[in-house]
From TrEMBL:
Descriptive protein name: Family 16 glycoside hydrolase
Organism domain of life: Bacteria
Ranges of Pro residues composition bias in the record: 226-239
GO molecular-function terms, A-Z: hydrolase activity
Species per Swiss-Prot/TrEMBL record: Catellatospora aurea
The entry's keywords: Carbohydrate metabolism, Hydrolase, Lyase, Polysaccharide degradation, Secreted
Compartment list: Secreted
Amino acid sequence: MSLLTRAAPRRRGVAAALGAGLTALVLALGTTWFGGTAYAATLFSDDFEDGNSTGWSKSGGSWSVVADGSQAYRQTSTGADAKAQAGSTWTAQSVSARVKPIAFGNSTRSVGVAARLQSLSNYYSLVLTGSGTAQLRRVSGGGITTLATATVAVSPGTWYTLRLDAFGSSLTAFVNGTQVATATDSTFASGKVGLMASYASAAFDDVTVTDTAGPSNPSPSGTGQPPSPSPSSSPPPPGTCNTGGSPVGFAAVNAWGRNGTTGGAGGATIEVDTAAELITAIAQTGPLNICVKGLITVPAGMYNVSSHKSIIGVGSNSGISGGGFNIGLPIDDAITSPPANAVQNVIIRNMVFRNASDDSINVQMFSHHIWLDHNDLAQGYDGLIDVKRGSSYVTISWNHTHDHSKNMLLGRDDADDLQDTGRLKVSYHHNWFDETPQRNPRVRYGEPVHIYNNYYFHNTDVGVACQTDAGCVVEGNYFESVEEPVTNSYAGPGGRCVARNNVYTGNEPGAPDCSGTVEEPSAYYGYVLDNPADVKAIVMAGAGVGKI
């Protein structure tokens, strides 16, 4: 069994909290080091090969570790609502286990896995029933609400691999690597994991918890009976994904020869599921809608996106790992005004970004009319979303960023004034900056930079840093436990900022440090603010993948 915990880096003031490990730590899986901080893709695992169930807390039934091909955790009673829980309080979770129903008390009884388990009567679960269904459930106060149901052939004595993903308010259920159900629910934001055998006997093995999506076709371990064939499914037809929608904010403004951002509108729609297909498609000339299916591992590097592209993830677990996207011409200090061939009109939505070797998304060299929306970004190397070198008319909206230190940079360097002054016009709205210590964003030169209706949670360094003659309007945001929410004196030359109508709450709310006057974004576009008191709930329910 293995449990890994994370500590967020701190600049000053508040000590990092280190989670206590479970006993019998024997194997550390999937750890990647960035800047001295460990971000663990695998949070917990137990294959019971050590012959014990140390770390598991049980309620009801009769539990023991037994030989079942390999060692497995078995519950033998069909007369109890039996549950076992383990782990720590995690937010993003992908819970996977091999489960073998042995006998059901009757056709309504069930076995399965649980995620975000806050107590033994409050959690989400994915279960198989004796009647031949897979059910995605919310259990609240002991009451069961079935969120989604799929027909699955359930045979006692057969192993099934169940996986339940909980990212933001998006819940996704898999049986033997095939997605069978999805739902949206924001009742439980975090919790432990569990194994469920409700008036049914069952065996459990190969429990794994990750903070990114698990594999689509997990393989069995040991010498136990392999999973049964996957049930039939109806995946989206090739070449289809949600290419609709339009931005608000600067990406919608008529400027630099473009009226708004339409991405691949007017072009063909294709589906890609390999690195070679993706890299070729994003570089293709002309308008194109690219549906990305699955989490695609690309070689380390930054891959160029050409003009007039929509890159859209299919479902809630599609995107890229290992590299990043570059939107812009090669760097050239001699170019100090927008060139005619600047990259423009690019949309990236509903994509998961993990383990980038450099930036996850980089926008540079006067690229314009860019919309980055409803993405989930984490565990990169440098920036998650950086915009620099004269790029402008960009909207960054409804993204969930987490498990990363250097979040979003706007303006690369204090010396880039010839390219950046009067440009870097960017709107940041309804993003969830989830324990990202700094650059939320860090801004140089841009004006106006409009930062509104975002949810900031436990940012241990700084929220908005407005410096080097930038002009920032920061309004209608919800800052919770943020050490320094807004400042124009963070580092280097100062900027100008206006902070208004924000909520500051939590254990360490700081006061905004703002001065100067700033050009109003309303001179460029109209917008309506959500009530800042409601922003936390709105953003947690709507930000990230699986929401468009």
